[in-house]
Specification:
The chain is α+β, with helices and mostly antiparallel strands. The chain is built from 2 helices and 8 strands. The protein has a single domain, classed as OB fold (Dihydrolipoamide Acetyltransferase, E2P) (Beta Barrel), CATH 2.40.50.140.
Length: 154
Amino acid sequence: MTQQNVPEQGAESGGTKTEVAKIYGNLGRDPVLRTTKDGVKVANFSVGENKGEGEDRTTTWHSVSFFGKEAEKVAEKLKKGQFVGIEGKVTHDTNEKDGVVYQNSNVRASYLSRCTFDENGEKHWEHIAGVSEYVKAQRAKEAQAKGQEADQGR
């Protein structure tokens, strides 16, 4: 997981920490689409992120949720085993059951793309849903610049 080291205000409390991160890995299962009692669509799936090689290789599993109108597209286009890139807010928490401590990583995805390969073996990233944090920041800068230009024109 690539952390952007941008903890949100009030992110740490009671054993839960929130951060913005990028995760690259393979889907562990097909997405499951559900609707909340408020009518919001949610696609839930897991992503396994591999680190290291050989005997040192480890896999970290992340529970991922994609909310909103694009959740249906996510559930429709993604399948188990596909390699994806996700940006989103990650919360980490710990639970204890029968004396064993479990660490959980939950991602509320805001951007999702999948990796495909063409007939020549060239890798391509296909946008599936959402807007990346980078694009959001660029749009905010552009809007701010336009606002400053409008103020100067008065």
